[in-house]
């Protein structure tokens, strides 16, 4: 999941070198934290959170194959 979020985020931002993704696993629950430059925060979140919601939907669909629950947090 970490790689998926990283690829999507790097495609959206102006400073892809400042994108960092961390992943924490606790049993069947995974938390993915996305860190981007402050100037790119709006591009990752989108108007009314639409892009952030789309990222979470894609990750949720990918994680359903593995029977794991994934939360994506934009920090």
Structure description:
This protein is of the alpha+beta class. It has a single domain, classed as K homology (KH) domain (GMP Synthetase, Chain A, domain 3), CATH 3.30.300. The protein is built from 3 helices and 3 strands. The protein has a 3-stranded mixed sheet with strand order 1-2-3. The longest helix is centred in the last third of the chain and has 15 residues, at 50-64. The mean pLDDT is 94.
Mean pLDDT: 94
Question: How many structural domains are formed by the residues?
Answer: 1
- Helical content (DSSP H or I, runs of 4+): 40-55%
Portion in strands: 25-35%
Adjacency order of strands in the biggest sheet: 1-2-3
Treating each run of at least 4 consecutive H or I residues as one helix, how many helices? 3
User: What is the straight-line distance between the termini?
Assistant: 17 Å
TL;DR?
With 75 residues, the protein is α+β, with helices and mostly antiparallel strands.
What are the main properties of this structure?
three-stranded mixed β-sheet; GMP Synthetase, Chain A, domain 3; 3 strands; 27% strand; 75 residues; alpha+beta
Outline the secondary-structure elements:
Blueprint: H1 2-12, E1 20-26, E2 29-35, H2 41-45, H3 50-64, E3 69-74
Parallel strand pairs: 2-3
Antiparallel strand pairs: 1-2
């Amino acid at each position: 999941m970490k790689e998926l979020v990283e690829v999507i985020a790097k495609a959206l931002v102006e400073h892809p070198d400042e994108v960092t993704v961390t992943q924490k696993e606790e049993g069947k629950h995974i938390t993915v934290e996305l860190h981007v430059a402050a100037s790119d925060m709006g591009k990752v979140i989108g108007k009314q959170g639409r892009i952030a919601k789309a990222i979470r939907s894609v990750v949720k669909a990918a994680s359903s194959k593995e029977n794991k629950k994934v939360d994506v947090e934009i920090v």
